[in-house]
Amino acid sequence: xxxxxxxxxxxxxxxxxxxxxxxxxxxxxxxxxxxxxxxxxxxxxxxxxxxxxxxxxxxxxxxxxxxxxxxxxxxxxxxxxxxxxxxxxxxxxxxxxxxxxxxxxxxxxxxxxxxxxxxxxxxxxxxxxxxxxxxxxxxxxxxxxxxxxxxxxxxxxxxxxxxxxxxxxxxxxxxxxxxxxxxxxxxxxxxxxxxxxxxxxxxxxxxxxxxxxx
Length: 214
Hints:
Layout: H1 20-33, H2 39-49, H3 55-67, H4 72-115, H5 119-147, H6 153-170, H7 175-202, H8 205-213
């Protein structure tokens, strides 16, 4: 049984997919739109169009999908499917992501192998790469707003984003090291701030003020 619909941060009602068939159909459509990367399409489809997830939930699943082995969008599909229909939903969502696109990828791979020596084809692929980068950047900007409500605070979240950009884009550090290092530090800092906030709420107002002053 799928979980009861909730509400997002803006108070809009979320809904649940009606069946595993709908999961398969939506993820197939999502995958077929994902030229240059599925992530921007996934955010628009799952959060804005279908309203299965809030932006915060999407970010949480995406973060976990980035850490786990395997393609992050496949991990995301598995988590979304499991959230609503358990193992059946996970398999349906994953099948939607890979079955039909696999055929298209095989056909395009044969075509690319036959035409890769043509300058026009190489130039077109480089042009598509620019569009793909723009799609990822647009998605990052759209998802940045919920980060302002992060337990790390807006400044702390911005600092982690900047440090990640420098580590990967400038210093060329290995992705695994950055995820485990910066990701682990950010996780620990957020957990500490949440525990501190929980303790402050549990204390009487006077004692909480004294602890903060001390």
